[in-house]
Amino acid sequence: MDITIIAESNGNELHPVTSQLVGAASTLGGTVTVLCPGGIGEKEASEISGVAKVVSLKGDCFSSFDSGAWSHVMTPHCGDGIVMGSSSPSGRELAAQIASKMGVPVVQDLTGIDNGLMMTRSIYSGKAVETSNASGSCVITLRQNAFEAASLGGSAEVVTVDSSSEVSVAVKEAIAKAGERLDVSEADIIISGGRGMGDPANFSHLNEVADIIGAAVGASRAAVDSWDEIPHSMQVGQTGKTVNPSLYIAVGISGAIQHLAGMRSSKYIVAINKDPDAPIFGVADYGIVATWEEALPSLRDELANL
Amino acid sequence: MKRLSWVNLDRRIYSRNVRDYMTIAVLLKQVPDTTAKIAVSGGRVDQSSVAKWSTSPYDEYALEYALQLKEAGGGDLVAITCGPARSSKMLTDAAAVGVDSMLHVVADTSEMDSTQIQSILAAAIKHCGAEIILCGKQAADTNSGSTGPGVASLLGASCVGMVSEVGIEGDGFIAQRGISSGDERVVVSKPCLFTFDKGLTELRRPNVKGIMMAKKKVIESVSAGDLGVDLGESGVKINSHAPPPEKPPGQKFEGAESVPTVVAKLREEANVI
């Protein structure tokens, strides 16, 4: 079976999720080809163990994101079997466009796949789990951090293809990111605050803890809706981001059903809340019944001393 | 929050350019309200137990900006859905805030694959003659995000994803979209499709007059076959739905003095810090 992987980039480098895609592909068996849009990360991709071939696609259309133009160039290089990408927003958009051009179905954001091509994904933002089977070729995207990464040590052939397509989405202006902080969907540790933080200024206490352990700072919908200072990009939950970090620390979050849906697949959950009956304790591995004012300084000091 | 103002630019300038030839379609999906509990019965999510059905949240932003585009540039706005009979209420709700016409493709989409749903919607859009299409970035039930870009591909329309605001610029459109490195403003011409993230605006609510008017509007109701779509077999068979795996009960501690204990456990038991 042919497995075509769409490399994910992060600026001018290969995004680490690409190794996870190769890792997942290796468990399925088959010949793995990695497509690098714009040639980004071609050398790094060729060094991932299990990759048979890297196709480096160089063309003017890859200087900005246009899923229509990109998929037009990429689809002819996708094999008959499985095409696999990351379930980042751009990864999903590209996967859907490629699937449409191939005339095959797309199944997004898998958290598991076995060699019988039984696919597992969460639906209703984690309120249920779906398993399904594809009867033929299909395009799939995988959730970041849900699969073991392949190791380094490969030395695949790199083939460069010069091909472009007409761009119809023209970038007029780039707007810098509001903050330098790590995005919640990228982070391995997340500390999130809810309306229990009392005031958006108090998120500075979460930032302090986050800086010590390299965490991203998230928020509940209640916090995002209440305070303009807390942007929607921080929102974890059904109408925000679904996350699955190794460690999720919820502070002053009661645990509305929409929030639990977005974070319950985290490997370990710590909840700090003054209300002992808060629903968040139902999903927490470690619950601390305390106010954030008392608990956060102690948490900061303990983590700083590790 | 930062607001852009192009939508509020002098309408008279733009209305001459765009009016009379702009047909806008908004794709809506009815989903269980995000506050609803989801129960599983017989290997499928039990739709009959859903307490409240709503328009999928990101689709509501698509609807809001579709209304703003219509107000800024003139033209007709049609709301399209593909779903079971209950979905028609959502179309009436859309009419109450200003949608001109409604098209309901009556079908049970719950076992369809992406190809089938996209074929139906692309055919529905062609049926309405729309060249500007807005939809949510993903539905709150399937969480996929395939429909918008797939439909754009079928229609040969430019696709702009993760949009938080859109307005008219000259003969085309300017949209703010999120990409991994930040936000950017992009310019496209019709035919084009925008998928919406949470928007930079408040959603409008219907008033009494709007609700009364909407009750009089007729929903065009068709089947996939009426649109000339041959669905074929689904290429993806759903094996089962299940509740999320139960977590074993956690450990609970009283008071901030337990923080050092928890940190030690995170290091020694969980091995995550």
Summarize, please.
The complex is a heterodimer of chains A (306) and B (273). Helices cover 25% and strands 29% of the residues of chain A.
Written overview of the protein:
The complex is a heterodimer of chains A (306) and B (273). With 306 residues, chain A is α/β, with parallel strands linked by helices. Chain A has two domains: 2-162, 3-Layer(aba) Sandwich (Rossmann fold), CATH 3.40.50; 189-304, TPP-binding domain (Rossmann fold), CATH 3.40.50. Chain A has eight helices and 17 strands. Chain A has helices at residues 17-28, 42-46, 67-74, 89-102, 203-213, 221-226, 257-263, 292-304, and strands spanning 2-6, 9-10, 13-14, 31-37, 53-58, 82-86, 106-113, 118-123, 128-134, 138-142, 157-162, 170-176, 189-193, 216-219, 247-251, 268-273, 286-289. In chain A, strands 9-8-7-10-6-1-4-5-11 form a nine-stranded mixed beta sheet, sandwiched between helices. In chain A, strands 14-13-15-16-17 form a five-stranded parallel beta sheet. Chain A is elongated, with a radius of gyration of 21 Å. The model of chain A has no long low-confidence stretch (mean pLDDT 95). By secondary structure, chain B is an alpha/beta fold. Chain B has one domain (6-227): HUPs (Rossmann fold, 3-Layer(aba) Sandwich), CATH 3.40.50. Chain B is 28% helix and 30% strand. Chain B is built from seven helices and 15 strands. Chain B has helices spanning 11-18, 57-73, 88-96, 114-128, 147-155, 208-216, 259-268; strands at 23-27, 30-32, 40-41, 44-45, 53-55, 76-83, 101-106, 132-136, 158-169, 172-179, 182-188, 192-196, 219-222, 236-242, 251-254. In chain B, the strands form three sheets. Chain B has a nine-stranded mixed beta sheet, sandwiched between helices. A two-stranded antiparallel sheet of chain B has the order 2-5. The two termini of chain B are 35 Å apart. The chains are: A alpha/beta (306), B alpha/beta (273). At the A-B interface, helix 3, helix 4, strand 7, strand 8 and strand 9 of A face helix 4, helix 5, strand 9, strand 10 and strand 11 of B. Strand 12 of chain A pairs antiparallel with strand 11 (182-188) of chain B.
